[in-house]
Amino acid sequence: QVKNKAPAEVQITAEQLLREAKERELELLPPPPQQKITDVEELNDYKLRKRKTFEDNIRKNRTVISNWIKYAQWEESLKEIQRARSIYERALDVDYRNVTLWLKYAEMEMKNRQVNHARNIWDRAITTLPRVNQFWYKYTYMEEMLGNVAGSRQVFERWMEWQPEEQAWHSYINFELRYKEVDRARSIYERYILFTALVLVHPDVKNWIKYARFEEKHSYFAHARKVYERAVEFFGEEHMDEHLYVAFAKFEENQKEFERVRVIYKYALDRIPKQDAQNLFKNYTIFEKKFGDRRGIEDIIVSKRRFQYEEEVKANPHNYDAWFDYLRLVESDTDAETVREVYERAIANVPPIQEKRHWKRYIYLWINYALYEELEAKASKRTRQVYQACLELLPHKKFTFAKMWLLYAQFEIRQKNLPLARRALGTSIGKCPKNKLFKGYIELELQLREFDRCRKLYEKFLEFAPENCTSWIKFAELETILGDIDRARAIYELAIGQPRLDMPEVLWKSYIDFEIEQEEYEKTRNLYRRLLQRTQHVKVWISFAQFELSAGREERLPRCRQIYEEANKAMRSCEEKEERVMLLESWRSFEDEFGTDATKERIDKLMPEKIKKRRKLQAEDGSDAGWEEYYDYIFPEDTANQPNLKLLAMAKLWKKQQQESEAAAMDPDKDIDESQT
After folding, report:
1. Are 228 and 222 in contact (CB under 8 A)?
2. Facing residues of 6 across strands?
3. Where in the chain is the domain with CATH 1.25.40?
4. Average pLDDT over every residue of 303-313
5. Separation between Cα atoms, residue 648 and residue 157, nearest integer Å
6. 367 with 403: CB under 8 angstroms?
7. Where is the region Disordered (predicted)?
8. Which of 340, 344, 331 is nearest to 305 (CA)?
């Protein structure tokens, strides 16, 4: 029993106990005492104890092969070869599939120069485990080291019957080459090539290349070329590999057969998919740079770019920008048939959606195709066919391209076929009328001086788009040029009478300018009055005043001043104060140039005062967004604002007095000096 159960003064944790135990494990144990055997009895006793230990270990676990190997190696160290052999045999009975056991057994026999025993073991090993390549390598190496070339060859032959992997065949070939047996090596290559062709599902190109290089290395160039040709024939066009053609081309390059090299590269590039021919193309480029002329190098560059464009259009056939680049390339360096083929491939990729925005790039493929046929190929019939095919393809009920119709008509005119051009433009207007088509057709007839046709087209045009002010103006200008003033004036009257116009201000200005050119000032004034009934825009008033200033001779200044007076009265109710300021500025400029002192003083009194104000801003969600400063104009004529103006003037006067009093308070000496003075 423990009398003192109080805790110890120094406490120790479980972690410290474990750490201390681990540290003590690392302490060096004293070496066992050396035992010196002095006579035979002690030796036999030592052997007995060791054998008993080994046997006990084996008895405990027979499947641990390391115990057997240690036992056999110990017997071997005592030169007890027979006992060691017996132990290995017992171990093989336990596990004959253990590769290490066979290797140790054979190495023991070879180490002790028991050649026949070693042969016997290797024979048993390769018979029992024929798929273990290490046995075959060791066996053939032993026979070769013993100088038994025939025996080693016989082992190789036995090995080849098992159809081993590639390295085994090459080991056999290298063995024959070490003894200068080139014919035997060639026959082995033939057997191996035949084996790969018949047995393997996907034969490898590198075996053919090695065979050809073997022939080349031994200066059998005709045989090497024959091997390459057989390889090309064997793989055909379905399983073409760029490495085979690169090796073939380099072989021919070494033989200075440059034309053959060029033919090989071109044959391969035409048949191998582009994505699998990067290395082939790179080597072809290097070859042309070394041995080709400028034309050959350019061909290489062009073919490389063609490959890139082919990949792009294959990845996305509707990438029309890639098609444009591709077509520019082929147009610059290939024949007409190739260019036509690429164009046909390009235009076959019709946009899947019938929306004009998807067709805008596509239509230029047709335009470029037609221009190429006309300008480069000089084939007018094909050009006409291209235009007609494009126009048939377009969905005119949904949208059309006026440029296509106009280009076709211009082409027919260049071919001196005016009826066809008119028929095309007439068809376009009938199927899908557009402003651009009318304008193009009218321009054509104007160039041909067919004014009656122009009149009819303008009538059709204005029936189609009566709101188009430009068309009205052009029609009136045509009549003016032809000298029919009444028709021109009637056209203007019809135009300004339209209920809806896209640019009415341009139309009115053109009509007024027309009357001014005809020096019909009263009609011009009436036009201004009619226009002012529709709009009170400040620019109309200013233009009216300037017209009066330039039109009359004696009464021009009173008339002009009267217009300004009317405008000022009309603009008093205008909410846009900037426009009223603009009017007064124009009036003041007029008075500065032509007025008297009284009129100048009067216009100065009419000028507004510019003041700065603040207004509250609100955000989109209705929250307060702060204050904004802006400028406002206060006109003296506005009686409603007179009290505000008076109050503002009094505030300014009070502020000025305050500033003066503050300045006097800050500088009293100055006031004393002034009083003394």
Report:
1. no
2. none
3. 206-292
4. 75
5. 123
6. yes
7. 657-677
8. 331
Mean pLDDT of the chain: 80
Q: What is the pLDDT of residues 436-459, one digit of tens each?
A: 878 888 888 888 788 888 888 778
CA–CA gap between residue 177 and residue 170 (Å, rounded): 10
CA-based nearest residue to 547, from 533, 526, 568: 526
Share of the chain above pLDDT 90, in %: 15
Residue 46 tokens, joined: 């030592």
Q: CA–CA separation, 152 vs 139, rounded Å?
A: 8
Ramachandran region of residue 434, left (φ > 0), alpha (ψ -120 to 50) or beta?
Answer: beta
Distance from C-alpha of 310 to C-alpha of 634, rounded to nearest angstrom: 73
To 5 degrees, how large is the angle CA 382–CA 386–CA 444? 100
Tokens at 13, concatenated:
């944790």
Neighbours of 411 (CB within 10 A): 22
Write the CA distances from 125 to 134, 146, 352, integer angstroms: 10, 19, 71
Query: At 115, is the pLDDT very low, low, confident or very high (cuts 50, 70, 90)?
Result: very high
Q: What is the 3-state secondary structure (H, E, C) of 540-583?
A: HHHHHHHHHHHHCCCCHHHHHHHHHHHHHHHHCCCCCHHHHHHH
Give the strand pairing for 609-618 and 624-634.
antiparallel
Q: Which of 87, 105, 91, 101 is nearest to 61 (CA)?
A: 91
Distance CA(566)–CA(568), nearest Å, equals 5
Radius of gyration for the alpha carbons in the chain, expressed in angstroms and rounded: 55
Q: Which residues pair with 618 in a beta bridge?
A: 624
Confidence at 675, pLDDT banded by 50, 70, 90: very low
Q: How far apart are CA 17 and CA 375, in angstroms?
A: 100
CB of 351 within 8 A of CB of 378? no
CA 626, CA 188: separation in Å to the nearest integer? 96
Which one is the CATH code of 206-292: 3.30.410, 1.25.40, 2.30.38, 2.40.160? 1.25.40
CA torsion sign for 618, 619, 624, 629 is negative
Q: Which residues contact 355 (CB under 8 A, 6 or more apart)?
A: 399
Count CB atoms within 10 A of the CB of residue 665.
9
Is residue 639's pLDDT more than 70?
no
Sole residue written with tokens 């007076």: 565
Q: Which tokens is 668 given?
A: 């009293």
The conformation of residue 384, written as its DSSP 8-state character, comes to: H
Please give the full DSSP string across 393-459, using - where no structure is assigned: HS-TTT---HHHHHHHHHHHHHTT-HHHHHHHHHHHHHHS--HHHHHHHHHHHHHTT-HHHHHHHHH
Q: Which of 477, 425, 482, 427 is nearest to 452 (CA)?
A: 482
The 10s digit of each residue's pLDDT in 358-410 is 888 888 988 998 998 888 888 888 888 888 888 888 888 888 888 888 888 88
The neighbouring-strand residues paired with 610 are 633
Is the torsion defined by CA of 605, 606, 607, 613 positive or negative? positive
